[in-house]
Amino acid sequence: MPTKRNMVIRRGMKRSHGAADPLLTRARALPLTMLGLGMLAFSGLAWPASGLALELFGGSGASSISPSQEMRQGTTQFQQGAFAQAAAHWMNAARGYEESGQAKELCQALINLAHALQQEGQIRRAQGTLQAALKLSEQNGERGLTATILAQLGNTFHLLGKDEPATEHLTKALTLAREENKPVLVAGVLNDLGNALTARRQFAEAIDVYAESRSLAIEAKQSALAATAQINGAMALLQNQQLSEAHRHLDQAWSDVRSLGDSQAKTAGLLNIGLGYEELFAATTAKSGVARKSDAGKGRATEAVASAGPGAGLLRQSSEAFTAAGEVAGRTGDARGQSYAWGYLGGLLEREHRNPEALEYSRKATFAAQKVNAPESLYRWQWQTARLLRAEGKEEEALAAYQRAVTLLKPIHYEYSVGYQGRHHSYYESVGPLFVEYEDVLLRRAAAAKTPDQNEQLLVQVKDTVEVSHAAELQDYFQDDCVTTVASHRGAGTLAPGTAVVYPISFPDRLELLLETANGLKQVRVPVTGEKLTKEIRSFRRLIQDSQSQNYMSSAQTLHGWLVAPLQQDLQGAGIHTLVMVAEGSLRTIPMGALHDGRHFLVDSLAVAVTPSLALTDLSAAQRRKGSLLSVGLTESVEGLSAPRYAETEVQAIRTLYGGKLLMNKQFSAPSLEEEIKDQGVGIVHVASHTVVGTEARDSFVLAHDGKITMDRLSQLVGLQQYRQQPLDLLTLSSCEIAAEDDRAALGLSGVAVKTGARTALASLWTSDDETTTELVSEFYRQLQDPALSKAVALQRAQQKILSQRGHTHPSFWAAFLLINNWM
């Protein structure tokens, strides 16, 4: 299922602080892959020993049993849903086969291992394992085997939400499978290709591909694969709003799956059918206008459940499918399958407000998940348990369950392959609502704490939870390990006197401000709804760019009253001169320095910086190195995009101060940028070229003379500095822009420093053709020459200089630039 980028759980200031919609708190109907149906057999190949398994997994790992026995034990564990244990056996088998030079068997062990890692949520590790297997198969000319590995690689890309490379790998696999005349493999790859096409919203093509997969599977007497394609086809029809056809396909799949023998594949099919009926219910009731209603007393969002009619029938079918799945899982010893069956049944009962029964099923699901050490499902049942306990007024027990759920998420590393048989789900669809609910519980308890110590402990938990949630959100945006890398290289440091950090946390019924200074943490509650706050932010962001209008002032003052004024006394009492905002959602789209108290802009009294997460900010002081500037830019149009009007003036003014190398126009290319960064001890990279940060990281780029440098590529180039003694201190994107109401793009902008490995980024929220941009940037660099000044104060003084000029008081002239991450 494609991720719902426009669905706002919390970011965008709309947070659900009671029980989330059950359909958002678990995976939706999930696409089954061909490899979910069991291990495939492969033909032999010759292979020279190379220490591959040792390189992949480390250690000698000597096993007391033979590799073939390890393979059989791994298969047994896998069929019982014990994926971690299966992975351990297959890892041992891979080592054994490598030592004896059995290439075919080694490849099979690696493929099995990758599948187990994939089921565990370790998608990138699975990719690395498959790449090793692919190299072996290609070296030995095993085209059929290569097709299988390419297909599984495509599935891993799909699970990570990267559906273009997924489609590419699966298309290659399909071509090879057809050429090798392997109809079963062709049918399986077609099914997986359908999953990737569905994720890309190419529903008509996906429906046709699933139909071909099912037809081939029936011809080859592969009943489980045929049923899989039928289920996935039904979900594609559902997403294409063909509800009647989807219902018919699900009914057929229900009949097909029930006729299968007991197996893990049957359990998976029944679970997905149950989820399919549940989603069909949601689509049907939405289409028929069944309204959502709010339980105002607890802030819970629930869906009206029809007591009769087709809606109730769909939920009944869903319940029957989950019950049948649990029974099959019980007979086959599949504890993980049982966990999902009971957990989903608990979710249905929660929907119907049958809380005691729902709680019983949730606890049974938890116990089953614990048996096979399955954190990717266990956190869900702990979360479900927490919601149910909270609904029953058992706050202490609910808090403990929330804590367990959040703790369980950490070893999963936020690779959002959530749900049975896994698929990529965005932060907003998977774990986002959990963080929202947990923070709400903590803040309410902190406000009611009886002692200062209790209050402080709870507020520390709130801060830590916000930090973790922001890191997860950022990792979901970039879809790589940049967050983990930055966290592991984070410099030591503490919050200096004179600096305050503010975490604005918005809920549907209120705004909470968490203030951190050298003196500790403080909570301030502001009575403004999330919807009202978002509306004011949108208005401010829209009006602030119109230099001909003063209409922005009302919003500037209103937002100051909500976001700054409640903290004013604390800020003054602590002698604060620098304010760091750890913003979320729509708050990331506006410049805080342009807020107004009725007499002055915020920038008049405070230096302002932003960061997506304090835990991802290097708090250590940097040694600024004069003469370490690399300036790049365009004065010529490239790919139909015009160059910044004052690019040349800008870079020349900065070079007057810092010297350094200049790459302009034809000299500015990806290879030349790489060469300069590699060969010099560059401390600052200044980019005076068109830069776009989009809703998705893949849509973000810096324009060079030879074309677009994607954010991934830019991070590779700038990241060359990460492993030197002196990392890149500052990356400036002086002609950057994001859409005014694109919260996802604003998230990406806030993470530019994290992605590229720079300690600090200076970037604009919008572009301006006015020459004051050049003057502001030049003044920032001039101020930065004073080692006694922080970067935040340098930007503040540059903005104040423009603000003081006649005719330039409007924020459109000076407010666009954000100082991101390290502000010192």
From TrEMBL:
Signal peptide: none annotated. Residues 555-820 form the CHAT domain. Gene3D superfamilies: Tetratricopeptide repeat domain. It holds the Pfam family TPR_12. InterPro entries: CHAT_dom (IPR024983), TPR-like_helical_dom_sf (IPR011990), TPR_rpt (IPR019734). This is CHAT domain-containing protein.
